[in-house]
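Posting for a labmate who doesn't have an account.
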Amino acid sequence: MKKLKYILSVFVLLLGVAVTRAEAATVAVVPLINKVEFATAEEEKVPNMVYMNQAMNILKNKQGFMLVENERVRYAIKTNVEPYKMPTREQLVEVCKKGNVDIVFAMELLNYDYTVKEQTTTRMAILNVRANLVSYNRLTNEYTIKKCVDDEELDETFTSRWDIVQEAWSKMVRQEFDRITRVKKK
């Protein structure tokens, strides 16, 4: 009798997991379209890693969404999205169909730097992080285009402990990805 109860409870648990996964909206992320010239290849890797890490972190902590990264999605992106160009609505619709995903998200990084401006008493660091994003949600048929800008001024003394440009980029990606995945099914 104990074995039957155990088997039944495991079956119910597995059924619950299967139902939860079946209802999850699937999300695909197009690799970052980087238009910024970097001095080294190592410097160029940072925005790309931040982009993917933030996308994964948002989805990992958000119920009802699942990041899909498999051969079918990679092929759909490769055959429908032109390299180094922002995808159009039609291209994202095709990625959704051929990749069998519900939401497609893409970002283009345009500026990624900061300058220091001398003032009378302090030195100010002026951020210049700019990006464009596009997304398509097949569940709601919603296509989004947005320009993202962070032109913040900070006292330079606060910038010595971390990379402020990387922090601003990370925040931008996190906010936009979170906003796109707030959309619910109709």
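Reply:
Got it, the structure tokens are right above this. The chain is about 45% helix and 30% strand.
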